[in-house]
Amino acid sequence: MASEAISSSIMIIGAVLGAAVLITAILPAIFSAGDTFGTVSSSAEQKLRTDFRIVNTYTSGGTTVHVWLKNVGNNRISIYDIQSSDVFIGYGSKYGRLGYNDNEAAGTFKYILDSDDGYWDIGETVEIFIKNTNMGEIGENTVTFTFTLPNSVRRSVTFSKTG
């Protein structure tokens, strides 16, 4: 009888310790997975709410390109996101990535936004201006332009010399 009580006590203690070890090993993984799903969900929602359209393009065939983009999404876009964006431009066999530089350095883009609040608001148009593509004259070539925000929302357009 005493041996049965001791055996039962040992089994109960073993079950409690096993449950404690199992809980300490599994619960952090469950919470971590929950955080990951929340982050992915938030990121997906951000992408769905962010949208812009390329509304006009211009080049005279030299090295200057103007592209106008309109924010048609449900999110304001920070000017820092515009500055961190990637611009890809190419024509003929030349293609490259341009970074932001407000001083119009060769191989960079700048933007013109008529807003003082630090955001590209819904319905506003921003002009992307490339003074020197750093790839020579565009001439009669067909130009491919892609604008990519840091959250990977991107739009592309293909156009050629205007007028």
Protein architecture, described:
With 163 residues, the chain is of the alpha+beta class. It has helices at 2-49, 79-83, and strands spanning 52-59, 65-71, 77-78, 86-91, 94-100, 108-113, 119-120, 125-130, 143-148, 154-159. It has an 8-stranded mixed β-sheet, with no helix packed on it. The chain has a two-stranded antiparallel sheet with strand order 3-7. A hairpin with a 5-residue loop joins strand 9 and strand 10. The longest helix has 48 residues, at 2-49. The termini are far apart.
The biggest beta sheet is recorded as: 8 strands, mixed
Number of helices: 2
Please identify the structural class as seen in this structure: alpha+beta
Radius of gyration, whole Å: 28 Å
Mean pLDDT: 83
**In order across it, which strands form the biggest sheet?**
1-2-8-6-5-4-9-10
Succession of helices and strands: HEEEHEEEEEEE
Chain-wise SSE layout:
Blueprint: H1 2-49, E1 52-59, E2 65-71, E3 77-78, H2 79-83, E4 86-91, E5 94-100, E6 108-113, E7 119-120, E8 125-130, E9 143-148, E10 154-159
Parallel strand pairs: 5-6
Antiparallel strand pairs: 1-2, 2-8, 3-7, 4-5, 4-9, 6-8, 9-10
Task: Describe what is shown at a glance.
By secondary structure, the chain is of the alpha+beta class. Helix content is 33%, strand content 34%. The chain has helices spanning 2-49, 79-83; strands at 52-59, 65-71, 77-78, 86-91, 94-100, 108-113, 119-120, 125-130, 143-148, 154-159.
